[in-house]
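Hey all, sorry for the wall of text incoming. These are the two entities for the joint prediction.
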Amino acid sequence: MKVRVNGVEHSLDVDPEMPLLWALRDVLGLTGTKYGCGEALCGACTVHLDGHAVRSCVTPVRRVEGRAVTTIEGLSATTNHPVQLAWLELRVPQCGFCQGGQIMTAAALLAAKPQPTDDDIDAAMVGNLCRCGTYPRIRAAIRKAAGLPEDKP
Amino acid sequence: MIEWVPGVQREFQLSHRSLVARDAPVQPFAMQREIIMAAAISVAGCGGGSPRSTSPPLRAVAANELRAPADFAVIGDRAQRSRALFVEASRVLMHPRCANCHPVGDEPRHDMTMVPHEPPVVRGSYDAGVAGMECQTCHQDRNQQLARVPGAPDWRLAPIELGWVGKSAVEICHLLTDPQRNGRRSLARIVAGGSRDQLIGWGWHPGDDREPAPGTQQQFGALLSAWVETGAACPEESQR
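and here's what came out:
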């Protein structure tokens, strides 16, 4: 099965029903994408499929055949995506476990809506949970990445 | 071939599910609903000034069954028959498995208890969520058996003009038959959608342990078709 991950073509010899998350982590060694709940309820496993945010824990590999997957490792060449830079500057993460998924969802939001309102941000990020409670910093960082006033946490 | 062990994930999910208790008992609701609908059918002859004696009792069916159009042949009056056919079809329209994606506002519901969707997603401009949180971020073209995420082709909310959670069968009927309010949909289009649309068809194949809508999509389509053929009459308020 041909899958393009972070710009590199891979031929995966796996069960088509294997969750993409398993293929990314255990087959391709891309461990930046995390397993949280396994039911698409927490957002820790969020990646991009042809630019759209999807939950890799419930996405069978067959769904991504012939399509382009982007993981947190491939979001930018040198960790310089505007969302990543804002994350670093505002020191958003605490434990960090959910942050790859948070960043991928935020990047998908800004790609589609470069100047989001706070309501847009809340609607996009509502399915990405953070047990450390970094939500105010996440929202501020998204605003910063969009070039908007930060709305200090 | 690299294999994986679904049992591990499944075991985790089962324990997780018990923690969040997403599946409320459904039987009391289903029973209550059937009693309501049986009552609605039994008074089908009361509206419009027609005497009760014109509507003999309809064949009894279980909560998960639909009556066929032929069952309504016992109702001689065409308009009364049409009203009764719609009441029968409304058992599908108002079933939580179908109505959950027909909210009046922007938030879908789920489960037989029709609780607000968790996570709290919103409709978006195209009824398919918003950037970063689209319906298809999680829902795919078929049910995901292990993760229990339901799916069907083009998973999305029903158009907002076809929102009817909280409305009665009478109100839904008037909505469906009013092109000014139903998005300028013809009755033929409504019948065709109800009969053949794959996403609507998911209601009868919801997967996992979800309760399906009563009957089959084919039977539902036949009811809608018969309702239109008999004049698409709407029930009276007293028939709710």
